[in-house]
Amino acid sequence: MIVVMKVGSSQSEIDGVINRIKELNLGIHLSQGEEHTIIGVLGQTFPELQDMLRLLPNVEDVIPIGKPYKLASKEFHPQNTIVTVKDVVIGGDEIVVMAGPCAVENEDQLLSTAREVQAAGANILRGGAFKPSTSPYSFRGLGLEGLKMLAKAREETGMPVITEVMTPGDVDVVASYADILQVGARNMQNFFLLDEVGKIKKPVMLKRGLSSTIQEWLLAAEYILSQGNEQLILCERGIRTFETATRNTMDISAIPIIKLQSHLPIIADPSHATGQWNLVSPVALASIAAGADGLMIEVHPDPNSALKDGAQSLTFDNFQHLMTSLKPIAQAIGRKLSSGGI
Ligand code: PEP
Ligand code: MN
Q: What does pTM read for this prediction?
């Protein structure tokens, strides 16, 4: 952070700023030109410091330099994070596909989907047991029963499972069934939940909030990392914009931005980003071309009768078709599809 003093500041005003910085146990680097005096702040700063210093007499501006997050940044952690779940490696050279229904509805629905997506090449089974819903009248999931069905599907197929956790109090029970815990878009800034999933020893996938900037998303990741859980995956699932033709707007550029700024793996979710099944495959292919480490895709045996997100769910045939189209795209960028979990 650097403090720029107004032209004509007196020595006592400059000293006032220097003393305040030193009182906070931070160091200074003074640069006094003919007109301007600039004071560099050295050491671990914090967001409120900017306002504290700006209020001091004759301070012209206070400019933060560097990123407000540290553990999530590539600068601090240059080597890419690789998250391994059973034999599935996320964030390495290979593309990982997570697929399954939006919500676990019953055993048949889940098991038939698990078998079909696995046969088509998916590596990880997804399915919501605790469902966040905008409307309280929507299906809110089977809860514990749903978790048990996920565990049964894993036992039958050998695929690791990912499912959402919505409250800090549910973290332990969800962690006892799931291989990866998902923090949904609506909970990206549920800071007590972030703290709790930061304390467990299982991988977590943090979805981007509906209206969150990339910086806010990486600060949410910082909460989890700072509690000690480094097995963290990010997921871009579209953001809210003025566009109404799609459910959300897929922020494709977030994928290479995350790759430039962070070491964390990134998964793309074209299902929630678009909200329409016939847009899912093109956006999935674009996401892989843009550098995503994998995909999360909603698949249902009969999307027309799905209890949740039927409009964006792929049929088994459409999912298989997507998996076939993915191969040449992965190859074109020097990657291939993972065979883990299959
Ligand atoms: C989901 O994955 O089913 C889900 C609810 O996603 P999001 O949190 O991105 O809306
Ligand atoms: Mn869904």
A: 0.94
